[in-house]
Design a protein that fits this description.
The complex is a heterodimer of chains A (166) and B (82). Helix content of chain A is 11%, strand content 30%. Chain A is mainly β and 166 residues long. In chain A, the strands form two sheets. In chain A, strands 3, 4, 5, 6, 7, 8, 9, 10 and 11 form a nine-stranded antiparallel beta sheet that branches. The longest helix of chain A is centred in the middle third of the chain and has 8 residues, at 95-102. Helix content of chain B is 33%, strand content 24%. Chain B has two helices and three strands; from the N terminus they run E-E-E-H-H. Chain B starts with 10 loop residues before the first strand and ends in a 6-residue tail after the last helix. Classes of the chains: A mainly beta (166), B alpha+beta (82).
Chain lengths: 166, 82
């Protein structure tokens, strides 16, 4: 059993980003400068989006737990993603399984969950059933299927007791 | 699509390592037994439909949604470990 409870075993990269290599303009989301270090390739695509394979992961804003996952080849398609350990209390990331499914070294991977944000953000959910595993070394990623108990596709992030106080 | 007819107890082989056996038929349901190496992942098709639907729902409508959610999280995030 994996002993770590960190969502990523990989050391955060302290390298200075290479100069921007791509400029993406999105009608909905604005303009982004993309360096090759922020790109990820999802060879099988996300489930339901098999034709889109190149994405970019960008920080949202200071203090935000979210990142953008933006499709480079369709800039109108974007998702909010996050480190599940930041959003879900007591989440135990299945790093060994995730690494095996990606055929990567568990020391190199990071786990991201896709966030669904409805009009009422207190109802936002994360998809724990199908996280996106990224190999930080090769920048290759895959949306994996976890058919496990306690991993629903729509886990409510803001627990009702907390929401009541907001 | 390849279509095969099998009786109860009969088996189909897929590739070298995967076997699908018809165990029982009752009413409108078929009970199957699958034998495969541990690294072959087996799922009901519905799980992919569930994930696809969730991915569709998760498409961001606009930047404002994300900003609203981030703001909410700053308010309540620290209380999550209740």
């Amino acid at each position: 059993m994996p002993s770590t409870i960190e969502c990523t075993a990989a050391r955060p990269s302290r390298e200075v980003d290479a100069s921007p290599t791509l400029h993406v303009r999105s009608r909905r989301f604005g303009s982004f400068e993309i360096s090759s270090t922020s790109m990820v390739e999802i060879p099988q695509g996300l489930v339901g989006f098999p034709q889109l394979r190149r994405y970019v992961v960008l920080e949202h804003r200071p203090g935000s737990p979210f990142k953008w996952l933006l499709a480079i080849d369709d800039p109108e398609l974007a998702f909010a993603v996050a480190n599940p350990c930041e959003l879900v209390a007591n989440y135990a990331p299945p790093l060994e399984l995730a690494a095996r499914l990606l055929e990567a070294d568990s020391a190199d991977i990071a786990l991201l969950v896709i966030v669904t944000i409805p009009a009422d953000p207190t109802r936002m959910t994360v998809n724990l059933m199908a996280p996106v595993v990224v190999d930080l070394r090769t920048r290759r990623a895959r949306q994996i299927v976890l058919d496990l108990p306690h991993c629903p596709p729509d886990y409510l992030v803001v627990r009702p007791r907390v929401a009541a106080r907001a | 699509m390849l279509v095969l007819t099998r009786k109860i107890g009969e088996t189909i082989r897929v590739g070298d390592d995967v076997r699908v056996q018809v165990l029982a038929i009752r009413g409108g349901q078929v009970r199957l037994g699958l034998t495969a190496p541990a690294d072959v992942r087996i799922f009901r098709e519905e799980i992919f439909r569930t994930i696809e639907e969730q991915n569709q729902k998760a498409r961001l409508a606009d930047e404002e949604r994300l900003a609203d959610a981030a703001e909410l999280w700053l308010e309540v995030g620290n209380a999550k470990h209740d």
